[in-house]
Design goal:
By secondary structure, the protein is of the alpha/beta class. The chain has twelve helices and 13 strands.
């Protein structure tokens, strides 16, 4: 049996799909702060997929929920930049204390494999592209810091307790079910909601900044490949092996009406993973082209009908703390 923390979320629910398809029983642990049962509605809950509503930051809530687990995929976390600046305590409780609690429960039941969802935000504004795993760690805001601290816990547990763990540093994951609510954040959710509403797409800066957009099924494949390997105590970049401009995304989406908003401090002009390590060690390669991935997003655009529609004014208000604290 597999445990997926954050299994009702964007990446987590796609991972659940993959595990069920492979014939695995899955227990999802989620507090639904970001995730939704809508992402798991294809299952008769309690049969192949069991859902436990619990907050990993509260160790008493998850006590006993890992019984019978052979593998743990730890994806539960608080995300987003601005909320982490404004409420860092919540991020430390979820992403650091929560990871500690998940590690302790996993070690107590003697899991065979543990895979941690880390973030490429740990690199901050990298010194080189594509960015290798040995690059300088330079988190710019509490979300990035707490995700890296979680990875440090995982790696330390692997070293000290001979705990069978791998960490995957994800780059700009996109795909169906990407989060629709919450705070201003991921570009796909913002753009698709604006498209549906017939509003201008808000382009940060000149749109020439590039991102290593990696399709969610490729990321899920990396998680499964890591879980099926014999490696431990290793961390890997997970990316598309390329980087794509926001302007190219705009063109693929077929958007005609756009508006430019100020470039944000603390954001790199480029994210681009060097994936040599994971290719050599795990024989993992991204398979979905950017063009095919964007087309899939457009085919599933109805998912974003209830998403907030961001405007220049609402973005300015939502990112005020971003400029205040990172624009120094």
């Amino acid at each position: 049996m597999d445990v997926v923390t954050g299994g009702a979320g964007f990446i987590g629910s796609h991972l659940v799909d993959r595990l069920v398809k492979a014939g695995r029983r899955v227990r999802v642990i989620d507090n639904f702060s970001n995730g939704s049962l809508r992402n798991l509605e294809q299952y008769a809950l309690g049969d192949t997929v069991e859902v436990v509503k619990a907050d990993i930051g509260e160790k008493e809530q998850i006590k006993g929920t890992f019984e019978g687990a052979e593998r743990v995929f730890h994806l539960a976390a608080l995300a987003d930049i601005v909320p982490s600046i404004e409420a860092p305590e919540s991020y430390f409780r979820s992403n650091v204390d929560g990871t500690f609690n998940v590690l302790q429960e996993s070690r107590r039941v003697d899991v065979k494999r543990f895979v941690y969802a880390a973030s490429s935000s740990c690199y901050g504004i990298p010194d080189c592209y594509p960015t290798v795993e040995t690059s300088k760690i330079n988190p710019q805001y509490p979300y990035a810091l707490t995700k890296f601290m979680g990875e440090e816990l995982v790696m330390h547990w692997s070293q000290l307790y001979d705990f069978p763990a791998i960490s995957l540093r994800m780059f700009n994951v996109y795909g169906p079910r990407a989060r629709t609510g919450g705070t201003y954040g991921a570009v796909f959710g913002v753009f698709l909601a604006q498209l549906i509403a017939g509003k201008p797409l808000t382009i940060v800066g000149d749109g020439e900044q590039t991102r290593d957009f990696t399709f969610v099924t490729d990321v899920v494949d990396a998680f499964v490949t890591a879980a099926e390997s014999d490696l431990s105590g290793q961390f890997f970049n997970v990316g598309s092996k390329d980087t794509y401009s926001v302007n190219r995304l705009i063109k693929l989406l077929g958007a005609k009406d756009t508006v430019y908003i100020p470039k944000r401090p603390g954001e790199p002009d480029c994210t681009w993973a060097d994936v040599t390590k994971i290719e050599n060690a795990l024989n993992w390669h991204a398979k979905v082209s950017f063009e095919d991935g964007v087309q899939t997003m457009l085919e599933n655009i109805n998912y974003w009908h209830d998403a907030p529609v961001w405007t220049e004014d609402s973005i300015e208000d939502a990112t005020r703390s971003w400029f205040k604290y990172l624009g120094k």
